[in-house]
Design brief:
The protein is globular, with a radius of gyration of 20 Å. Helix 4 crosses helix 5 and helix 11 runs parallel beside helix 13. The two termini are about 35 Å apart. It is of the alpha/beta class. Strand 9, helix 11 and strand 10 form a beta-alpha-beta unit. Helix content is about 45%, strand content about 15%. The structure holds pyridoxal-5'-phosphate. Pyridoxal-5'-phosphate binds next to helix 11.
Length: about 425
């Protein structure tokens, strides 16, 4: 498989190069040149396979030129050793729990897979690489955790000061070793812009090896498509096509789902559910895309005003919005609705939703207009990560998994920085002298 840039001005590259580069030199995002379609027999056999076997089979056509089978298998079994259960909630509604990884968020899937691919590729080259990542909350911890202690890799995390929860912050600022956290005086969009500037900076790129672990890196998107297959397999009925609701911020998760559908996965449709940062639902409705500054909400990992993966989605659909609307409906929810959903789902079923997953649930309710479809919404974070909001609405504190409780007692270590790219550049050039 070769990978091309959404801006179409970069020659095609291998999986290895696409992962190492992060973003294409023409500032576009890498997408597979063609999406393989799996035959019917593949889907018939799917329910008999384990999670790792499904992941391996889906990944193989995308990586076969760069990763021998045994390397791919050990990357998958090491990175994705936690389960992703599909749980029946009520009526036709199912929840796919993506939060059983080490940092309790779905980003563990992408970050851990990508980290291991990158480690494999850099170890072979004997090179050093700096991973630059902007986070609105969960990416930072998933990436930091995925790369912690990985030889030859330095991780630099940019996050907006005061705009991530204390718990999230603790998860990526207390690790030390090869992980550095930069506390930026600005918004998540500032952080994202600074990272993008670094990738577009030829002077810098000629001096240090940088790559991205944001969902602009195809190495994060690919593994996220695996669990759509696994979810379908767990439905246990080959005749049905589910509606799948995806709580979205940068739209990487939805892009992976759309890729799965193009690979032949039987899906009736997707719901792109957001908080009031609704630029994509608006685009789906009007056909006009108007990026703007993000607004802070209780579902902060989805506070994105200019989602990077929309470029990939538009590319996949040849920028034909009518085609896109056939597969995706958009909707968005305000804080009151999110809180009400957390409360009512808990009252009615005893199930605790974090604010992001609650948006997924609400999106599914909106999208499930007909009874004949089963519905799946993605639960992207464990309720304990957002325990205050969850406790306010349910009257009960969620159980705190031990791995989360532990990092609360560690000391935060960060470097403060303004929201100016020049400062970041200087820091990277300085730091690189010593690594
Ligand atoms: C990152 C994140 C999202 C949004 O995912 P995208 O792929 O960026 O759309 C949703 N929920 C949680 C908990 C997240 O961490």
């Amino acid at each position: 498989m070769k990978y091309i840039s959404t801006n179409r001005s970069t020659p095609s590259v291998s999986f290895r190069e696409a992962i190492l580069l992060g973003q294409a030199p023409d500032k576009g995002l890498f997408v597979p040149e063609g999406i393989p379609v799996f035959p019917d027999v593949f889907f018939r056999e799917l329910p008999d396979l384990s999670w790792a076997e499904i992941a391996f089979k889906v990944a193989r056509p995308y990586t076969e030129n760069d990763l021998p089978d045994d390397a791919l298998w050990s990357i998958i079994t090491d990175a994705l050793h936690f389960n992703i259960p599909l749980i029946h909630l009520h009526d036709q509604i199912h929840v796919l729990e993506l939060f059983h990884g080490p940092t309790l968020a779905f980003k563990d899937v992408g970050a851990r897979f990508m980290a291991r691919c990158l480690a494999y590729f850099t170890a072979k080259k004997g090179a050093k690489i700096t991973i630059l990542v902007a986070t609105s909350g969960d990416t930072g911890s998933a990436v930091a955790n995925g790369f912690l202690g990985v030889e030859g890799v330095e991780v630099v995390i940019l996050y907006p000061k005061g705009k991530v929860s204390e718990l999230q912050e603790k998860q990526f600022t207390t690790l030390g070793e090869n992980i550095t956290a930069l506390e930026i005086d600005g918004t998540f969009d500032d952080c994202q812009r600074m990272v993008k500037s670094a990738f577009g900076d030829e002077y810098l790129r000629n001096r240090i090896n940088i790559s991205s672990a944001n969902s602009i890196n195809i190495g994060r998107l690919l593994p996220q498509s695996f669990y759509y297959f696994y979810a379908w397999a767990q439905l246990g009925n080959q005749e049905v096509k589910p509606i799948i609701s995806v709580p979205s911020g940068n739209f990487g998760n939805l892009t992976s789902g759309l890729m799965a559908k193009k690979m032949g996965l039987p899906v009736a449709g997707f719901v792109a559910a957001t908080n009031i940062n609704k630029v994509v639902p608006e685009y789906l409705e009007t056909g006009i895309y108007t990026p703007r500054s993000s607004i802070q909400t209780i579902a902060n990992a989805m506070d994105v005003g200019d989602p990077s993966n929309l470029a990939r989605i538009r590319h996949m659909y040849d920028d034909n919005i009518r085609e896109l609307r056939r597969d995706v409906t958009g909707c968005f929810f305000e804080e009151k609705e999110i809180r009400n959903a957390i409360r009512s789902v808990y009252l009615n079923t005893g199930y605790m939703l974090d604010p992001h997953s609650a948006i997924g649930y609400l999106g599914l309710k909106t999208g499930l207009k007909e009874d004949r479809f089963p519905g799946i919404f993605l639960a992207t974070a464990h309720p304990a990560k957002f325990k205050d909001v969850v406790a306010e609405e349910t009257g009960k504190l969620p159980d705190i998994p031990e791995r989360l409780a532990k990092c609360m007692n560690r000391k935060k270590q960060t470097l403060r920085m303004g929201n100016d790219y020049g400062e970041l550049k200087e820091f990277l050039l300085q730091t690189n002298k010593y690594i």
